[in-house]
């Protein structure tokens, strides 16, 4: 369901003028600032973790020092594409600031006191490493929009298809279009903003399967950042006394393929979450799959639909998501949409709470709390009678970025959890639209501010 944001007297021109004023007022928003004290022949703290977009600020305390990271002075190194720096830190130059724009490791020193006086900055791309809504023209090759084709010749290249998929409560639902993974065609991958090798990793996406075969084959997987062959987290569809999903860590001979006990329905949209759990000190990371037909738990369920799955293959850094068009004799046909790769379950889980003991006699949209927020906030609203609710977040130009609620709700007070982990810092708007069975309508829009 698409909402016209500019009806009920709220003209598009007026909206754009208001958005431009608010956006300009917030144009100096930036990421977190991390302060490093320069004193007593040491950087304190010497090792920090930051996100791309953050600022590192060196603050002089005493002595005469430098902060140097140019890749040529001994002990210094920085990621490709990152700007080098070399600044004196002393009573005459007490502060130096550096904005991190490239993920990776930065090793820096004080030139007069190296190698004893050194520090490390580890920059990640944030908790969301990839978001793909296929918001491109129908018929375009994915290769024109950041994906790389790597096998299958010129047969059945992966293309943008319409319509996009809808799954109530999923932040990437009903945005843009989709892609259809066929059989016996090109495969394609897309790189994460930064490769990942520690902690847990979650890959969420919507899928609607239109055909399956008894042999079965996998249609999505993960890859190292420099490989097109070392597939892991292979996710399958198969006809085995009903439609079943499957998961393997690697190949069938290196650990096996494990299928769901439950069966599923063709031409139905499901939400899939693949999880990678690293086990430090071993070479046997665990893989799991969670498959939902409605809703999204606000916290990770204790029991997955498949797994945990292990295998004999060695573990690798993960840096790509792949869509694979298998053989014509084995593979199914799947519509895939709303892919997100993230470090936290909360990055894609939107929860809605109904305070059932409260009977509402009004229609009201409340200001989100907290505001400003990073990366999550709560949005509360009242409805006096049962009706259809659409609660959507959109950017300063009126482009829809997340649909939080798109469903019928009973009278009451509701709270929706919104996570902006996949969005840039800035001013956004959220709009509540109510359509009652008695013909009553209600619309209200409010502003929220995301600061990372």
Could you explain the architecture of this structure?
The chain has 1 helix and 32 strands. It is globular. The strands form 7 sheets. Strands 10, 12, 13, 15, 20, 21, 22 and 24 form an 8-stranded antiparallel β-sheet that branches. Strands 11-14-23-16-17-18-19 form a 7-stranded antiparallel β-sheet, with no helix packed on it. Helix content is 3%, strand content 46%. With 452 residues, the protein is mainly β.
Notable traits:
452 residues; mainly beta; eight-stranded antiparallel sheet; seven-stranded antiparallel sheet; 1 helix; 3% helix; globular
Mean pLDDT: 84
Radius of gyration: 25 Å
Structural class: mainly beta
- The parts where pLDDT drops under 50 for at least 5 residues are 1-30
Task: Give the overall shape, derived from the CA principal axes.
Answer: globular
Helix content: under 10%
- Give the distance, in angstroms, between the N- and C-terminal Cα atoms: 30 Å
List how many beta strands DSSP finds: 32
Largest sheet: 8 strands, antiparallel
Classify the beta-strand content into a percent band: over 45%
Count of DSSP helices?
A: 1
């Amino acid at each position: 369901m698409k909402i016209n944001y500019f009806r009920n007297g709220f003209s598009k021109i007026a909206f754009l003028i208001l958005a431009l004023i608010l956006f300009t007022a917030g144009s100096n928003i930036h990421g977190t600032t991390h302060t490093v004290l320069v004193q007593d022949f040491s950087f304190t703290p010497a090792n920090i973790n930051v996100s791309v977009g953050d600022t590192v600020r060196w603050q002089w305390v005493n002595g005469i020092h430098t902060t140097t990271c140019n890749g040529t002075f001994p002990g210094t190194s920085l990621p490709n594409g990152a700007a080098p720096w070399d600044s004196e830190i002393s009573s005459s130059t007490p502060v130096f600031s550096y904005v991190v724009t490239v993920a990776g490791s930065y090793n820096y020193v004080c030139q007069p006191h190296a190698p004893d006086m050194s520090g490390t900055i580890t920059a990640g791309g944030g908790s969301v490493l990839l978001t793909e809504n296929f918001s491109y023209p129908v018929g375009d090759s994915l290769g024109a929009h950041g994906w790389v084709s790597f096998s299958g010749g010129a047969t059945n290249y992966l293309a943008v298809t319409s319509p996009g998929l809808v799954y109530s409560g999923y932040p990437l639902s009903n945005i843009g279009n989709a892609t259809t993974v066929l059989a016996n065609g090109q495969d394609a991958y897309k790189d994460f903003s930064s490769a990942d090798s520690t902690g847990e990793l979650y890959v969420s996406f919507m899928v609607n399967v239109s055909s399956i075969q008894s042999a079965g084959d996998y249609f999505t997987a993960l890859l190292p950042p420099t490989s097109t062959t070392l597939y892991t987290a292979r996710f399958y569809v198969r006809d085995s006394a009903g439609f079943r999903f499957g998961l393997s860590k690697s190949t069938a001979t290196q650990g096996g393929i494990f299928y769901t006990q439950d069966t599923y329905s063709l031409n139905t949209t499901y939400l899939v979450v693949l999880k990678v759990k690293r086990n430090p000190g071993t070479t046997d990371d665990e893989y799991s799959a969670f498959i939902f037909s409605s809703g999204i738990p606000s916290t990770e369920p204790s029991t997955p639909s498949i797994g945990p799955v292990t295998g004999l293959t060695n573990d690798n850094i993960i840096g790509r998501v792949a869509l694979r068009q298998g053989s014509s004799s084995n593979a199914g046909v799947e519509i895939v949409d709303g892919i997100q790769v993230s470090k936290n379950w909360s990055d894609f889980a939107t929860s809605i709470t109904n305070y059932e003991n409260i009977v509402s006699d009004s229609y009201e949209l409340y200001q989100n709390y907290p505001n400003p927020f990073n990366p999550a906030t709560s949005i509360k609203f009242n409805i006096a009678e049962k009706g259809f609710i659409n609660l959507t977040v959109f950017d300063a130009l009126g482009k829809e970025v997340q649909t939080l609620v798109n469903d019928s709700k009973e009278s009451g007070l509701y709270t929706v959890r919104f996570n902006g982990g996949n969005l840039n810092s800035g001013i956004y708007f959220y709009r509540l639209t109510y359509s009652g069975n008695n013909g009553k309508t209600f619309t209200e829009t409010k502003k929220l501010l995301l600061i990372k």
